[in-house]
Amino acid sequence: MNFFTLAYKNLLRRKIRTFFTVIGIGLSAWVFITLMGFNRGYEESLNRDIEAMGFQLLLTAKGCPYEAATLMLKGGTGLRYMPQDTVKKVQNAPEIAQLTQMLMHAEFDPYKGEDGGTTVFLGIDPTTYPAMKPYFRFKQGGWFTQPQANEIVLGYEAAELEEREAGDLMLLPNTEQEFKVVGVLERTGTQDDGMIFLPLQTLQKTFHKENLITMLGIRTHQEADTAVFEEQLYQLPDVQVVSMAQVKNTIISLVASAKVIVLSIAAIAFLIAMFGVLNTVLMSVLERYQEIGILKAIGALPKQIFYLVWLETILLCLWGSLVGIIMAFAFSGVAEQLVRYFLPFAPVGNLIALSPGLILQTLGFIILTGLTGGILPALRAAFIRPLDAIRSEN
Amino acid sequence: MSLIQANHLTKHFTRGQEIVRAVEDVSLSIEKGDSLAILGASGSGKTTLINLIGCLDNPTSGTLTINGQSVFDGTHTLAETALTKIRRAHFGYIFQKFFLIPTLTVQENILLPFLFTHAVPETMQHLHDITRWLGLEKRLNHLPAQLSGGEVQRTAIARALITRPSILIADEPTGNLDSRRTEEIGTLLARLNKEQQITMILVTHNPAFAQFANRTAEMKDGKLTF
Fold first, then answer.
1. Which of A212, A215, A249, A259 is the most buried (most CB within 10 A)?
2. Does residue B70 register a pLDDT over 80?
3. Is pLDDT above 70 for A320?
């Protein structure tokens, strides 16, 4: 027999109390893992979404920067337009590596769903846009045959929603014109999955937005000073510049207060776990007052009793951590849905990133918390005098 | 040279405003292989005395020598760790309440002292000898709750003997047992003293049980008389 076996058997004496303490620690561990996983997962997903945009700067018509950020990441309504000749004003700037112009158009479709709904179309320049999205893969077909063709490319989810495949025809709402689906994209895990793409010129003509665009995506050279270039772009009339860093910071600042709250909850969860462990182990020590005294009478040193009680604490924390880790993996989907419901903007990828590092970090924190909570009971046990224990009536 | 030599042992403590003179100037000498029963009424100080001799407590004054080695010299008190090391080296204890660990088997309870001394019993033969001698050989894998009162106390005796102590201290070892079990345990301890030459100090309020020792002494108001 060793100390581990003795500690294990001591904990099994009060199975129900041990069970509930382990569940308490498990819940704390679960909350901690989920919240820390969210802290990382959210930022990673946001970065991934922004990287997937394919450009670092976006020029839009002057308006609310938050609306512009939303437009970039989710597609938006209340669209503003800028003249297409804006392209000519910026395209020769030496900082620009690639540039693409886009027109976003939202059209009400009376036949969509039960009460109708808005369908969003993105007009793209077939000569420049695909180069911005090198990770696009086609499930069926390919890009448009002509810059003015009456053709459509569907994102993965859009194709599923519209129930269309390459070669099918689609009627655009309020136009009476049929368009041929020439390509369906593979899933990208970004907002592009829900997009309906048309050639820019076709969309302009179809919805009477000739010479208008909503966005200009710009990828700069690596060596370019983006900040200086942004300042130059601000000189253009009625145009606002949104950089990826800006968008990211805007969204991060929106969720910053939520992060403070979740970290506070994680800290409270740890405190609850610590007091739970303290209470359980202290109760256990007081119940075994005489027995611990006898252990000392038969040769246990104070430090050995301290170690034994601390070992019981570590075991409780290990079991609790394992329960918490299992719960975190089992319920990460539910937690993610909840987070998506409450957050103002949630990126597309996994919002809760569970990693081996995080699991080890949680184990470390929980055990540290347990050890801190276990100090008082372990000291109480270590300083029990065998004589007092033997004399004690209870 | 006596195995145990106590000179003018005194233990006073306060209870509220009152000073309790639990042990008052007790001197005694016990030879190796001797067995002494200390009789006395409840509160007479007999348990306090064997707690001093058994190094469970520091005396207020007086000296104690075990096997020629000075334990209490009348000038220093010993810390708990130092007392524990002396207890490990010389003593085995049997208490009125058996204090077995309920979740450990008989064998695990008996071997428990080795967990703390890190000493490995030379062979399991010693365990088997003791348990056979105490009639526990078929109970080794049982839990204390599955034993009779006599078997539980015999397990506690085996735990006290497993480290081969030179002195066995038994404080009211039959206090929780009926007369038949008292007889059984008394006979066992007497055999142990005779066959294994283990020095024994028994504390009891039962004169019949005291007959199992070679010598008896009586404790009254903190004073010991032979």
1. A215
2. yes
3. yes
Distance from C-alpha of B35 to C-alpha of B24, rounded to nearest angstrom: 22
Q: What is the pLDDT of residue A37?
A: 85
Whether residue A216 sits in one domain with residue A71: yes
Domain boundary among A168, A202, A237: A237
Cα B179 to Cα B190: distance, rounded to the nearest angstrom: 16
Find which of A45-54, A341-350, B206-215 is predicted with most confidence, using mean pLDDT. Answer: B206-215
H helix or E strand, kind and range, residue A283: helix A244-287
Out of A1, A383, A387, the one facing B57 most closely (by C-beta) is: A387
Structural fold of domain B32-59+79-225:
Rossmann fold (3.40.50)
Residues of B in contact with A300 (CB under 8 A): 84, 115-116
Q: What is the pLDDT of residue A349?
A: 67
Q: Return the closest-CA partner of residue A304 out of B122, B71, B85.
A: B85
Residue A297 has pLDDT above 90, yes or no: no
Q: Once rounded to an integer, what is the mean pLDDT over residues A290-294?
A: 87
- Is residue A245 situated within a structural domain? no
Q: What is the ipTM of this complex?
A: 0.84
Per-domain boundaries in chain B:
32-59+79-225
| Domain-located, residue A57 | no
Q: Which residues of B touch A6 (CB under 8 A)?
A: 101, 104, 115
Single out the residue of B156, B130, B160 nearest to residue B144, CA to CA: B156
- Partner residue facing A298 (CB), from B103, B104, B112: B112
For residue A81, pLDDT beyond 60 = yes
When scoring B11, B15, B80, B90 by the number of chain A Cβ atoms within 10 A, the one with the most, hence best to mutate, is B80
Residue B150: C-alpha distances to residues A222, B101, B147, B192 (Å): 88, 16, 8, 16
Does the beta carbon of B95 lie under 8 angstroms from any beta carbon of chain A?
A: yes
| Cα–Cα nearest to A351, from A342, A360, A364, A362 | A342
**Which residues of chain A have a CB within 8 Å of the CB of B117?**
299
Instruction: Give the chain A residue nearest B47 (alpha carbons).
Output: A391
**DSSP three-state, residue A344:** coil
pLDDT, averaged across chain B? 86
The per-residue pLDDT for A68 is 52
pLDDT digits (tens, 9 = 90+) for B23-41: 999 999 999 999 999 998 8
Q: Which helix (H) or strand (E) holds A295?
A: helix A289-297
Q: How many domains does chain A have?
A: 2
